[in-house]
Design a protein that fits this description.
By secondary structure, the protein is of the alpha/beta class. It has a single domain, classed as NAD(P)-binding Rossmann-like Domain (Rossmann fold, 3-Layer(aba) Sandwich), CATH 3.40.50.720. The protein has helices spanning about 20-30, 40-55, 70-80, 105-135, 155-175, 205-215, 220-235; strands at about 10-15, 35-40, 55-60, 85-90, 135-140, 180-190, 245. A seven-stranded parallel β-sheet has the order 3-2-1-4-5-6-7, with helices on both faces. The longest helix has 28 residues, at about 105-135. The chain starts with 8 loop residues before the first strand and ends in a 6-residue tail after the last strand.
């Protein structure tokens, strides 16, 4: 374990699996106290167990970031358990149903926006509120290369929501850097998680598709996304404000 984030308190939404879990493990490995948040207790407990078995410190907080009271409570409970909040990573998100824009179900469209956009807004609102009252902090949001950078057929709701996350994050960065709150985002392409696997696709078929679709010839590793998030949250990135770091193996180069 290293100590870049020693004595720092970190809150990660969507921390029960995939990219969120990888980010939580990476922060813990660098000395942070980590609160992982999400709607399902089981996966969060698994993340906490992985961290603790590696010698780190973590807690699980169940909650729904689309609920303003829950979003506030996640910050409050992190502060109560760890004595503060230095870094927040907003990773909670969903893909939604697949299909052309002309066939999007309105209820699903609203659900995707509620989780991906409104959830990010409410989480940031309460994180910023605490940080600017307690000496500042860093926030990193997880968006996607699909949206502001790339469009893919059949994921219109997701693309629109992630484009909104990108715009919202950069607006927040401008609004709050004078408050001592430094905000950035990462925009991953396909990563080795279930979200980037098509229905019925096995690992071999996915690997072949990645060779054809991604100039780097592969999907990204969760650890590569986590490393970028930790950099943006670190003091070394102190002059980086409102950056959108695209991590997609050259797909949008």
């Amino acid at each position: 374990m290293t100590t870049r984030f020693a004595d720092k308190s970190v809150l990660i939404t969507g921390g029960g699996s995939g990219i969120g879990r990888g980010i939580a493990l990476a922060f813990a490995q660098e000395g942070a106290r980590v609160a992982v948040a999400g709607r399902s207790a089981g996966p969060l407990a698994e993340t906490v167990d992985l961290i603790e078995r590696a010698g780190g410190k973590a807690i699980a907080l169940t909650g729904d970031v689309t609920d303003a009271q829950d979003a506030a409570r996640l910050v409050r409970e992190t502060v109560e358990q760890f004595g503060g909040l230095d870094v927040a990573v907003n990773n909670a998100g969903v893909l939604g149903a697949l299909g052309p824009v002309g066939e999007i179900d309105e209820a699903d469209f609203r659900r995707v926006f509620d989780i991906n956009v409104t959830g990010t807004l409410l989480a940031m609102k309460h994180q910023i509120g605490h940080m600017r009252a307690h000496g500042g902090g860093a926030i990193v949001n997880v968006s996607s290369n699909v949206g502001a950078h790339r469009r893919i057929a059949g994921v219109g709701a997701y693309a629109a929501s992630k484009a909104a996350v990108t715009a919202l994050t950069r607006a927040a960065a401008r609004d709050h850097i004078a408050d001592g709150v430094r905000i950035n985002l990462v925009s991953p392409g396909p990563v080795e998680t279930p979200m980037s696997t098509r229905p019925g696709e096995n690992a071999e078929a996915k690997a072949e598709r990645m060779k054809a679709e991604v100039p780097a010839g592969r999907a990204g590793a969760v650890e590569e996304i986590a490393a970028a998030v930790l950099h943006l949250a670190s003091p070394e990135a102190g002059y980086t404000v409102g950056a959108d770091l695209v991590l997609d193996g050259g797909a949008t180069a």
